[in-house]
Amino acid sequence: MNYFDIFVIPFYIGTIFLFSVLIIKFLQWFIQIPKSGKKLIWKNIFSTKTLKSSRECFSECLLHLRIFRKNLRLGYMHTSIAFGWFMLIVVGKFQSTAATGEWIEPLHLAIFLKYFPVGESFRYAYLFGFLMDFFLLLVLSGLLVAIAKRIRPKVTGMKRPTKHTAFDKVALVSLWAIFPLRLLAESFTSGLNHNGHFLTGTLGKFFDLFLPLDLLQYPTWWAYSLALGVFFCVMPFSRYMHIFTEIELVFLRNWGLKTEDQLGGFANFELHACSRCGMCIDVCQLSTAAKINDVQSVYFLRGERHHTLSRKLTNNCLMCGRCEEVCPVRIKTNQHRLLTRTSPFETEGHRYDYLQPPQAPPKGEVCDSTTEQEHSVTTAFASHPPFRGGLGGLSYFAGCMTHLTPSIKTSMIKIFEKAGIPYTFIDEQDGVCCGRPMMLSGAKEAAQKMIAFNQKVIEESQAQLLVTSCPICYKFFKENYQLDIPVMHHTEYINMLIQEKKIKLHKTAEKYIYHDPCELGRLSGVYEEPRTILKKTGILVSIPDEREDAFCCGGSLANTEINYAERGNIVREAIQALCAADPDYLVTACPLCKKTFNKENVIPVKDIAEVVAGRL
Amino acid sequence: MEQEKKILVAGGGPGGLETANTLARMGFKVEIVEKEETTGGHLKEWHQLFPNFRDASDVMEELRQRSQHPNISICYNEAILDVKRVNGHFESLTSKKRIIESDAVVMATGFDAFDAERKEEFGYGVYPNVITSVELEKMLREDGKVTTTDGRVPERVAIVHCVGSRDEKVGNFYCSRVCCICGVKQAIEIRKHHPETRVTNFYMDMRMSGQYFEELYRESQERWGVYYVRGRISEASGMMDGKIRVKAEDTLIAKPVTLTVDLLVLMTGIEASKTTKELSKKLEIESDYGFFRPRDRHYDDQHSPIDGIFLVGTAKGPATVKETLADARAAAQRVWEFFESKNV
What we know:
The structure holds 2 protein chains of 2 kinds. By secondary structure, chain A is mainly alpha-helical. Chain A has helices at residues 9-32, 35-44, 48-62, 65-70, 72-100, 107-112, 125-151, 166-193, 200-210, 213-234, 242-254, 266-272, 279-283, 285-288, 297-305, 311-315, 322-326, 333-340, 400-403, 406-419, 436-440, 444-460, 471-480, 490-499, 528-537, 564-578, 591-600, 608-613; strands spanning 378-379, 394-397, 423-425, 465-468, 487-489, 511-515, 539-541, 585-588, 605-607. Helices cover 54% and strands 5% of the residues of chain A. In chain A, helix 23 links the parallel strand 4 (465-468) and strand 5 (487-489). Chain B has 2 domains: 6-110 and 273-343, FAD/NAD(P)-binding domain, CATH 3.50.50.60; 116-270, 3-Layer(bba) Sandwich (FAD/NAD(P)-binding domain), CATH 3.50.50. Chain B is 26% helix and 28% strand. Chain B contains 7 helices and 20 strands. In chain B, the strands form 6 sheets. Chain B has a 5-stranded parallel sheet, with helices on one face. In chain B, helix 1 (14-25) packs parallel to helix 7. The longest helix of chain B is centred in the C-terminal third of the chain and has 23 residues, at 321-343. The radius of gyration of chain B is 22 Å and the shape is elongated. The interface between A and B is medium-sized, with 33 and 33 residues.
C-alpha cells in the first residue's frame, strides 16, 4: 500500500534539520567538558545514578512534578503539553505498527497515520483511537492554559510572565499552531471517512454538516506538516531547545558534573535547558520590591546563551539564590553570573601591595615628616601582629562585617570565655577580608591575593578548627580555601557547645523571628542549628517565607548595580514580611543582615551570638 | 505699635527665641512652647562657639534676657503635637492636651543629633571610650577636662567626621555643614586643655565655607598641631586596655591605615528632630529627610506652603547659630508682612 504523500516533506525537512543540529551541538558541548568531567561520566555511567536520572527525566521532563508542587495550574500546563505530546508520539508509533504490522516503517506514518488508508480493522484500533484523541485533548487543554497565561498571567498564579524575543514568539506561534491543526486535519479526515473517536469523530461529523471537507482536508494536512517543520527548524535556536537539553542535563548532573571554574561544556547544557518559564521572576526581590524586571535569571541566561550579556544583566543580582531554589530545571545561575562578571577595577597599580611581605620596615608615615613621629598613623599590615593567646586550637575569624558590628564579636568572646575554650583571635587586629566580596564583584585576582594572605594566617595560627561569625567568610572558607581543618559558622559552633554541655542557656519568654541569611541558609545549607539554639533561649515563631524560601535582607554585597533607594525597598519588603508576626526581636546569624535591617530602625535586630551571650 | 495678633512659636531654641524676641518688639503677642524645662535648645549644651571661641552661654544669656518681654509668654515641658487651621486662625494641640489658638504659627522645632548607635561599626554604645561630639562638648563645658571613662587624660584622640551625614548607608545624603568646623574647634580645645594629647581628624572633605572657618582650620594645624587624615574610618574595635583601634584608608596615599587611640569622638550630624519630622509629615509640608519645606528656597524661605505657618532655622535643614538667628529675624519680618498684606 502507498503510505506516502508529498505533504510530509516539510515535516521531514524539519526533523532532519533538528536532529542534525542537536547532534552537532551536543557533541560540541560534550567535547568542551574537561577531562575530569569526562572521567566522572565514565565512573558513574554504569551506576544507579543512571537509573535515578531516568526516573528524574520522567518525573521532571515529562510530568514536571517540581512545578506542580509550587504551582498547580502552571504544573498542569507544562505536564499536559509535555506528557500529552510524548504520549501522542509513543501511542502513535504503536498504533501505526499495529496498523501496518511492521515495526520498521517510515517515520511520518506514526504522525500522519489518519490521513492514510490503513482501515479500522487492526488490533486494538478502538483503544488506540481513544487514546490518541484523549492525549490530543490533554495537549489542547494545556495549550488553552498557555494562551490564557499569555493574556492574563494571573490565571496561572504568575505575576509577570517572561518577555520573549520576536524569534521566540515565532517558535511559540508555530508550537501553538501544531495541535489545533492536527485536530482539524484529523477531524476533517474522520468526517470524510465517517470514523474517528470521541474527539475527532464527533468534530468530523459536526464539520461535515456545513464544511466542504473534501476540499479542506488536504490543505489542512499540509498546514499541519508545515507547522511541525517550522517548529522543528526554529526549535534548536529558540527556548524550546530545553526539551531535549533537559534530559542530557539530568543525566550529566546526576553523574556529578557541575559548572565550576569555566563556562562552556556542562554550562552549555545548563544554559540551553532553561525553558524561560519565568518562575524565577516572581520570586526575585529585585522584581517584587525594586520593580526591576529585566535582569532575572531567565534574561541573564538568555543573554549568556546569545552572547548579548550587558554589565547590568551580569551584575544586577543579589545572588541570594531564591531563583535557583524555585527553578524547575535547577540551573545554578549564580555560578554563571560569577564567571561572567569582570571587575572594572581589577589590578589598579599597587592597590594590594600591603598584602605582600614588606621590603622595608612595615611601618610608614603618612603625616608631614617634620612632625613628631607619634602623631602618625601606621600604614599596612603586611605581616599580621602577633596573636594574643595560645596557638593550635580554635582559631576565631570574626570577618570584616563582624568588625563593623562589634557587639557580635564581643558576644562571641564572652561565649568562648564562659565555655572555657582557649581561642586564637586571628583577625582581631589588621584582619584582611576573606575575599568573597571581591570575587562576587568579579575582581578574581584581588580575591586570590586575599585568600593567599588569610590562608597563611590560618596556617600560622596552627588552627585545628576555624570558627567564623560571618556566613560570607564561612562559605568562602569552605569552598574556595584549601583548608584541611573543619570550618564552622558560630551557629554550628554554639550549638555544639550546648550539646556538649559546655554552656547552658536560660530560657525566656522572648518571641523571635529567625531570618535565614542567604549565605548560611540557601547557599550553605545551615538551617537547623540556629533554630535549635533559639528554641533554648525563647519562643521561636515560624513564618511562611523561611529556610529555602527566606528573603534576602537586601544588603547583599553581590549587587553593585542597584541604587540605595532600590536597595531600601528590598530591605523594607523583607522586614515587613519578617515582622508580620510581631516578634520582640528579629534574630539573624549574619553581621551584614543585622547591619542592613538595623539601618531601617523598625525592630530590634540581634545576632544569634548576642542572644546566646545574653542568656548564659 | 500695638498688634492684636497672636503668634505661636513651636520650640524655644535660638531660632524660636529670636523670632519671638523680634515679633514681641513688633507688638505681636507671642507664646513659646518649649518641650524641655528650659529654653535654649542645643545651644545650652554647648561650651564655646566657632570660629571665635565665644562662650555659648553669652549668646544664651542675651537671648533669654531679650525674651523677658511683656509680649512673650513661655510654656515649658510641653510640645506641639498637631496644628489645625480653623476659619483663618490656628488651633494647636499640645502634649498637655491644651489647645492654643493663634493667628500664625512659627515652626522652630529644630534638629536632633544623629543617633551614633546607628553606625555600629564605630562602636558607640559598645565601647565606652567612643563618644559623640555632643558628649565631648559637655566635658569641655563642665570643667574643660577631657578624660577617658577611667578618668585618664587621653594620649591620643581621633575625631571622625561625617557620622550620619553624607552617608548613603544611613540614608542621609546631605552635608550637615556645621560638623567640619566644630571638629576643628573641638580639636583645638582639646589641645588647649591638654597640650600632651594628640588629635587626629579623619575626614572626607573639610568644608570650611563660613567666614573665618578656613583660617581656623589652618590655625589648628600650624599653631595647635592637629592632624588630618583624608579617609573615613571603616571600623573601630575595642582593645583589652580600653583603647580603640581604628581602621581607615588614607585616600591621599591609597593605603589602609590603623591608629590606636584612647578616645574616639564621633562628629554626629544634624537630623530633623522628632517633632520636626512628625509635624512636617502631619501638615504635609515635609521635604527630604523629614525637614520642613519652605514655599520658595530663595525668595520665601521662611514661609511654609501653608499660609500663616512660618519656618525657622534647623527645622528646614542644617544651619549654624549665626544663620539661625538671622533666619529668625527674617521670619519675624515675614510674619509682619503676612498680616500687613491681609490688612490691605
